[in-house]
Amino acid sequence: MKLDPFYPIFDSADWLERMLPLGVKLVQLRVKDRSETEVAREIARAKALCAAAGCVLVVNDYWKLAIAEGCDWLHLGQEDLDDADLDAICKAGLKLGISSHDEPELERALTAKPDYVALGPVYPTILKQMRFGPQGLERLGEWKRRIGDLPLVGIGGVSLERAPGVFEAGADIVAAVTDITLNADPEGRLKAWIAATRKHAATA
Hints:
Helices cover 46% and strands 17% of the residues. By secondary structure, it is α/β, with parallel strands linked by helices. The two termini are 17 Å apart. 41% of the residues are buried. The mean pLDDT is 94.
């Protein structure tokens, strides 16, 4: 299946309830610093919301809960790969996205046979402390040439204004976090993202 080019990331089902009605077709739920019981509740609610909206839900990190809740997609960072049971994930039929930051991480990601690869941060990001600096647009192009038809996600410090350059550099999908959640008008910003990315998709 072809994934939508716009990939917002939210930290709660409350955000999904606000944003999905506006037309989001691909979303990641990235819950941090909550108990496992709370995370399971968030995943279950997010799954129901996405099913009703016809949106693909990607669960970040919590692979056991994603399997238990019958989810379809999972995203793992490199640290998550250390503890993940890839055989169990595959057996459960979960499609998989994996983060990468440098050549060894890309190689490691590809051995897991992912359904997409993410590269980031493309630009400086305020979301979390990163041990890797900005990767830049040139590396996006390098990654795309390496992985061919496998979808490439550009993430990290990407704003609506920077998105066209990220697509032009080689990304198939652009992820956004704080450009939406920290905007004074998150709904308006999300609508602008959808309009811009659908226009890109129509001309790609």
